[in-house]
Every structure is written in structure tokens, then in C-alpha cells.
């Protein structure tokens, strides 16, 4: 439900024709504004913008209903490609602004595809179990690293993609083949903002419940003898990690 709320808020935010530019996208004063020509404005307004609106509308109206429908992913994918090529190499300011909206909707749309969320969550579950049961192997499952070199380690991508290929849908394979780097960067980078629309927070909202559920399962599975003989180290470790994940995942809905 929470996920659904901020999925919608992403879409609503994107749908605003003129979003407030964040300070780092405001052009420095050595860069002159590039006005769009009449021809470019017409192209943007009549050809490209409707394509973007259609994507936002489709993502919004299908949220949560598309599970198991591989056509939905392919449709959005095709629409994103068409919208991107509509802007072609128009680089005037208004086009750039609108392309940012488009890219945000098309690049970080994981919340729109339940099959891909599910895949991501299965992997988080697998990585957590390796962390608890085979810590010596965990390194190759841990792509949540603060150094770029570690995140770009091809072995980690291979382990991840092998998992996806054998445990997820064809669309998930396609999705992560294209977006793996963006996803791992987003999850490793704690943003300054606590805004739930940040991809980082959205990924935490996929990941943390998986850790909590797995911890709960292990906690419930502790036997009387486990408790008696204090064979609870793994559960204690799991609780600690799950709790930290939840604490870091806090975000707030803003307008
Ligand atoms: C991009 O610009 C080049 C040169 O100005 C032009 O030949 C090409 O057709 C343009 N591409 C698109 C997609 O508009
Ligand atoms: C990043 O990777 C290095 C080398 O594998 C590891 O020692 C370190 O703990 C990792 N950092 C995080 C935050 O996972
Ligand atoms: C597929 O998922 C199962 C269950 O999480 C896991 O044990 C297995 O290692 C995965 N396959 C690959 C190739 O990673
Ligand atoms: C659940 O508990 C049983 C008995 O203690 C143990 O054999 C089994 O491995 C446990 N399963 C998990 C997933 O921890």
C-alpha cells in the first residue's frame, strides 16, 4: 500500500509540466539559456509530450494490476523508446527539462512492474540468506557497496544476472540487463533527501520487508532447544540487520 502511494506520487510529480528544477540542474550563468525554436516547440508540444503523458498515464493506471502480463512491460518499453527518439537531438532547455521527466519515468519504473519487483525481492532474500548462512560467500552477492569500483565488479553482476536468468521472468532479464548499474548505484547511495520518491528509498521499501520476513521466519523456527542452548546467533544477527534496514528506510511523503 505504501509502495503504491509513492508509486503514484512519482507519477504525479512527473506529470507536472514544469517541475521545480533541483539546484544542480539550474544552468550556471556561463551557460546561456537555449530557447527552443518554433519548430522545436511544435515538435515537443504536439509530438513528444503526448507520448510522455501516455507513458505516465499507463504506468499510473496499471500499477499493481500488471502482474504476470509480459506484454505490459514490453509495451512500456516500446513507448519509452519512441518517446526518447521523438526528442532526438533537440537540446533546447524546454526539451531537456521534459526529457528529464521522461527519463525518470522510464529509468526508475520498477514500482510499476510487479514481476520485476518480485525478482528484485527474491534476490534480496537470497543475498540475505547467504549473508546469514554462508558469510564467506556473501561478498559476491553484495552489490550494495559504497565504492563505485566494487559496484562495477563484473563478478557481482554475473552472480546477479545468473540468479535472474534462472529465477525470474524474461522481462526481468531484459530489465536488469539494461538497468543493473542504475539500480545498484541508487541503492548504494543514501540521498540527502528523505523524500519517498527517491529511488533509494523505494528500493529500501522493497528490500527491508524481505529481511524482516526472513528474520521472522527464522525467529519462529527457533526450537526450545535452540533457545535453551542459545543457538540464536544467526537470528540475533538477522534482527540487527533487518532493524537497521527499516531505520534507514524512513522517508516522508512531500508534495
Ligand atoms: C540529429 O542531428 C543531425 C545533425 O544535425 C541530423 O542529421 C539528424 O537527423 C538528427 N537526428 C534526429 C533524430 O533528429
Ligand atoms: C564493499 O566491498 C568491500 C570489498 O569487498 C568490503 O570489504 C566492504 O565491506 C564493502 N562495503 C559495504 C558497505 O558493503
Ligand atoms: C534461484 O533461487 C533459489 C532460491 O532463492 C536459489 O537457491 C538459487 O541459487 C537461485 N539460482 C541461481 C542460479 O542463483
Ligand atoms: C528450522 O528448524 C529446524 C529444526 O531446528 C532446522 O533443522 C531447520 O534448518 C530450520 N530452518 C531454517 C530455515 O532455519
UniProtKB/TrEMBL annotation:
User: Per the database record, which ranges form the T20D4.11-like domain?
Assistant: 36-188
For the keyword Acetylation, the answer is no
The answer to whether UniProt assigns keyword Signal to this entry is yes
Superkingdom per UniProt: Eukaryota
Q: Know the name of this protein?
A: T20D4.11-like domain-containing protein
Would you indicate the residue range of the signal peptide? 1-17
Query: Which InterPro entries does this chain map to?
Result: T20D4.11-like_dom
Keyword vocabulary terms for this entry: Signal
